[in-house]
Design brief:
- The complex is a heterodimer of chains A (about 450) and B (about 300).
- In chain A, helix 7 crosses helix 8, helix 11 packs parallel to helix 19 and helix 13 runs antiparallel to helix 15.
- Chain A has 19 helices and six strands.
- Helices cover about 60% and strands about 5% of the residues of chain A.
- Chain A has a six-stranded mixed β-sheet with strand order 3-2-1-4-5-6, sandwiched between helices.
- With about 450 residues, chain A is of the alpha/beta class.
- Chain B is an alpha/beta fold and about 300 residues long.
- Chain B folds into three domains: about 160 residues, P-loop containing nucleotide triphosphate hydrolases (Rossmann fold), CATH 3.40.50; about 45 residues, no CATH class; about 90 residues.
- Chain B contains 16 helices and nine strands.
- A five-stranded parallel β-sheet of chain B has the order 2-5-8-1-9, with helices on both faces.
- Chain B is elongated and about 95 Å long.
- The chains are: A alpha/beta (about 450), B alpha/beta (about 300).
- Chains A and B meet through helix 2, helix 3 and helix 11 of A and helix 1, helix 2, helix 5, helix 10 and strand 9 of B.
């Protein structure tokens, strides 16, 4: 059982579920208490002791099913054809006993007597030796099988077979058993490698998703993406929330200490420390929702709003031909729905940066002030219309800083109707925002400044 | 081995006896937490009975339930111990004369301080110690069930402090020394997942996720908690709520909402669901106007589904 557990833990780690040694020790202790007779109970016990998060549960279940299916399948096989009694007097095994020392170790004997338990133990040891667990791709199956065969020293059995045939002895049974065992090896290795490769593939998919251009996501990926965004937002929030609340201990606030001490007859029982009070930062997002940048907008806006716990004040505006304040929409509806609605209502019409910036400037006289960070998401493609550079300059003058996120790769900035270089000169920072990874980075940057 | 299985079953029965219908998952993890002496971290959507679990367990094992509600800014002073400043101050005032006469014949300040030192712990001793939940749990004679509620609301600093406490159930008070548990408490932490808890904390706990219950379980819970309800209505209520949970809502109705609704329906003396009744009482189930609007056009369909 110990070995099974260790191996299972390794499988979990392969699937990127971190399991510490203390946790596997707990699992072992728990299993000795409850026993392993009931599959569902075993699953529950392992989940309780090894997991840290409900997010990990689907992966865990998949691993569990795969890993412990081996055991179940073998038991069934054994049930169908009970192994022949080991001690049956048999001419073949009688004289083979003398040959044992020659080669093949106990393997030949185990094969002949049909000692499943011994064979299984050997196979497991050999698979360990051959490091099948390290396989990363299914194409490695062949190599791994070969390695296991070597580790088992199957050649010695072949030698034995050959010698017997030369001496005219019957070797039929051993040959049959060997062939069956070889199939078994192949099957086990295949299953194991597939399991490894799949767990790899899941994380691989996540990684790929984070690098896929946001505009190219299909519907199926979008659900997964939403989950990723949520998780990223939570992680960023946790990280930055921590930083925001950090107090500077050790600086005594003398006036408040004296005032407080009045309650204790002038004895300063309760010293008061100075906390660093942060400025009331504010983030205003202006988001292009015209056809061309829609994909990114649909990810960015919910993302920013998921961060509302950390960022003190978030305002969102969207625009195609003119800017609209959608903060309330996001406040009252779930991000998904708010986004769909914003797109449907305001996403039509061609992009007009000139008019938008001008009206945005006029509408945000009060909103954008010294402590405000302005984030603009757009491709800066203006259909050769007015650019509204003066308005942008005025906004940048009022705000603490302006960050522009552009979903296009840098090399196409300034080509065709893109006014990006001109805009870029008037912003404090221009970041590429093509993939979720870019976005994560950009938001981390935003938090660092605004938080 | 079978012993453990029986105990798990027994625990589930006993929990049911005090009004907490648990799934097998819950009973297993609670049993393990006790057997391994580890804290249990209970996660799940709000209103599925995370807090209730600790309360029911305290009833079953007949121990005191000590609850620590976490919030932003919770610190050791509120969670662990505090000195009774007022009492200390009062006593210094009262004992002033006594101290004066005691120190009257000391000729220098140094001498006076030395003499004070010989008087023992004085104001920083047991009688002036105000035990807060964590310390109470340690000092409880018969062991306690300690519920650390909504640990995700507390600050990361407090979480780090908890680690120390959960590791060996002892705390160090500078003036008094280390205080160990008289009887290791059974610890439950609950979290709504509003913040990601630290890896270290999660690693120290057994993990239990309580999801929304399935229909059979929820009907059993309803039967237990709202006994006066007819069987048809109960089935309809549960089916309807399950239909609602599938919708894209901001706050899905949990068990507590189902119970409230069932009680409401009972008060209105309903014996079947009808659309008008549902419409009038929907705000018991849904807490956001937004959600009510989402659900309203689907009501008839949901309710028809619940009937069949």
């Amino acid at each position: 059982m110990e070995r099974l557990l260790t191996e299972f833990v390794q499988v979990l780690r392969g699937a990127h579920i971190d399991v510490g040694p203390a946790q596997s020790a707990d699992a072992a202790r728990a299993l000795t208490l409850t026993g392993v007779t009931d599959r569902d109970r075993t699953r529950r016990v392992l989940a309780a002791t090894l997991l840290k998060d409900q997010d990990q549960r689907p992966t865990f279940d998949a691993c569990f099913d795969r890993y412990f299916q081996t055991g179940a399948a073998e038991h069934e096989q054994e049930g169908e054809s009970p192994p022949p009694p080991a001690n049956r007097p048999d001419p073949e095994s009688a004289d083979s006993a003398t040959e044992q020392e020659g080669g093949g170790g106990g393997l030949a004997r185990a094969l002949e007597t049909g000692d499943t338990a011994a064979l299984e133990a050997r196979l497991a040891r050999a698979m360990n030796e051959a490091r099948v667990a390290e396989a990363r791709h299914w194409t490695q199956t062949g190599v791994m099988t070969q390695r296991v065969r070597q580790a088992l020293n199957l050649e010695a059995v072949d030698d034995l077979l050959r010698r017997r045939r030369e001496q005219g002895q019957s070797a039929e049974r051993l040959a049959r058993a060997r062939a069956a065992f070889d199939r078994r090896i192949r099957g086990r290795v295949e299953q194991r490698v597939r399991m490894q490769a799949e767990t790899q593939a899941w994380t691989f998919r996540d990684r790929i998703l984070r690098q896929t251009p946001l505009s190219a996501l299909d519907r199926r990926d979008q659900a997964r993406m939403r989950e990723l965004v949520q998780r990223l937002a939570r992680r960023l929030a946790a990280r930055h929330g921590r930083r925001r609340r950090r107090r500077r201990r050790g600086r005594l606030d003398a006036p408040r200490t004296v005032r407080q001490s009045m309650r204790y007859g002038g004895v300063p029982f309760r010293p008061v420390w100075k906390g660093r009070r942060r400025d009331r930062a504010r983030v205003v997002v202006l988001c292009d929702v015209s056809q061309s940048v829609r994909g990114q907008a649909a990810v960015l806006l919910p993302f920013v709003h998921a961060l509302q716990g950390v960022l003190p004040e978030v305002h969102s505006w969207v625009f195609a031909s003119e800017p609209v304040d959608v903060t309330a929409l996001f406040l009252h509806h779930a991000p998904e729905r708010a986004m769909t609605e914003a797109l449907a209502r305001y996403g039509n019409g061609s992009t007009d940066y000139g008019g938008t910036l001008e009206r945005f400037d006029a509408a945000t006289q009060r909103l954008i002030q010294r402590q405000t960070t302005v984030v603009i998401l757009g491709d800066g493609r203006n259909n050769y219309g007015p650019t509204g550079l003066e308005s942008l300059e005025r906004i940048a003058g009022r705000a603490r800083e302006v960050i522009w996120l552009n979903p296009e790769p840098e090399r196409s900035w300034g080509t065709g109707d893109s006014e990006m270089p001109a805009y870029a000169r008037r912003c404090d920072e221009v970041l590429r925002c093509r993939t979720l990874r870019d976005l994560e980075w950009a938001v981390a940057e935003l938090l660092r400044r605004a938080g | 081995m079978t012993d453990a299985v029986e105990q798990i079953q027994g625990l589930a029965d006993e929990l049911a006896g005090v009004g907490y219908i648990s799934s097998e998952d819950v009973a297993t993890v609670v049993y393990l937490g006790d057997a391994l002496g580890k804290p249990v971290l209970v996660e799940g959507p709000p209103g599925v009975g995370k807090t209730e679990l600790a309360r029911a367990l305290a009833d079953v094992v007949d121990r005191e339930l000590i609850r620590l509600q976490c919030y932003e800014g919770l610190d050791e002073g509120r969670a662990l111990y505090e000195w009774k400043y007022g009492k200390q101050l009062l006593y210094t005032q009262l004992l002033r004369d006594r101290l004066g006469s005691l120190l009257a014949d000391s000729d220098s300040l140094d001498d006076a301080v030395r003499r004070l030192d010989t008087l023992g712990g004085g104001f920083f001793s047991e009688p002036f110690l105000e035990a807060r939940p964590l310390l109470q749990a340690l000092r409880s004679e018969r062991g306690a069930v300690l519920l650390i509620d909504e640990v995700d609301k507390s600050d990361p600093e407090f979480e780090a402090f908890l680690l120390e406490f959960l590791a060996d159930y002892q705390v160090t008070i500078p003036e008094l020394g280390t205080i160990g548990a008289v009887h290791a408490p059974m610890v439950f932490l609950t979290s709504n997942g509003s913040r990601e808890l630290s890896e270290a904390l999660k690693r120290r706990c057994l993990h239990l996720h309580i999801p929304y219950p399935d229909r059979a379980l929820e009907e059993r819970i309803l039967a237990q908690r709202v006994p006066g309800m007819g069987e048809t209505l109960r089935a309809e209520v549960v089916a309807f709520v399950h239909g609602l949970r599938v919708l894209d809502l901001r706050k899905r109705p949990a068990i507590s909402e189902t119970l409230d609704w069932a009680r409401t329906l009972l008060l209105l003396q309903a014996d079947r669901l009808d659309t008008e009744l549902v419409q009038r009482t929907l705000n018991v189930l849904l807490k956001f106007q937004d959600d009510v609007e989402t659900a309203t056009p689907r009501l008839r369909e949901l309710q028809a589904g619940a009937r069949s």
